Amino acid sequence: MVPLGRTEGSLTPRTTPTLNETDLLWAFISQAPKALPSVRIYRRAVVNVQAVQGFRVRAGIPGQADAYALCRGGLHVELETKAATGRLEQAQKRWRAFCREFRIPHMVLRAAPDEAPEATVERWIDELAATLLLSGGRDK
């Protein structure tokens, strides 16, 4: 596997690459279980499309977080990811408010400007680990 930010066969790092929210999320999903073995992260699809057959396909609730973490013991954490310039949309703010009202942990994981993708993913893992400790979850 080639580390993010390097090219195949290259010994020198590329300039700091910028990844979009989706790419960062997939990197986070793949790396988190290695650092937090009691946690599994799942991508959530919110879909509203017109099928070629003429019918509309809808799944999910507008504004739901991009992903969610399930932790051994039953803890559930909502995970919204944002690139450095990303902002929450109104529907996402409503979902966050719903989660707060129901005492469901909700995190907005943001990339920092000029942060390497690996550093972003590592920081997000650390932030999730801290949230688990504050929410009564443990990772052993």
Mean pLDDT: 86
Low-confidence stretches: 1-14
CATH class reads: Alpha Beta
Q: Assign an overall shape.
A: globular
Strand order of the largest sheet: 1-4-5-6
What is the total number of structural domains?
1
Secondary structure tally: strands: 6
Estimated helix fraction: 25-40%
What sequence of helices (H) and strands (E) makes up the elements? Answer: HEEEEEHEH
Distance from N terminus to C terminus (CA atoms, Å) equals 27 Å
What fraction of residues sit in β-strands?
Answer: 15-25%
**Oligomeric state of the chains?**
single chain
Structural class: alpha+beta
Sheet with the most strands, sense and barrel status: 4 strands, mixed
- The Cα radius of gyration reads 17 Å
Protein described:
The chain has one domain (21-134): Trna Endonuclease, Chain: A, domain 1 (3-Layer(aba) Sandwich), CATH 3.40.1350.10. It is 32% helix and 21% strand. It has 3 helices and 6 strands, in the order αβββββαβα. A hairpin with a 5-residue loop joins strand 2 (47-50) and strand 3 (56-59). Helix 1 crosses helix 3. The longest helix is centred in the last third of the chain and has 18 residues, at 117-134. The protein is globular, with a radius of gyration of 17 Å.
Short description:
The chain has about 140 residues and is an alpha+beta fold. About 30% of the residues lie in helices and about 20% in strands. The strands form two sheets. A four-stranded mixed beta sheet has the order 1-4-5-6, with helices on both faces. Strands 2-3 form a two-stranded antiparallel sheet.
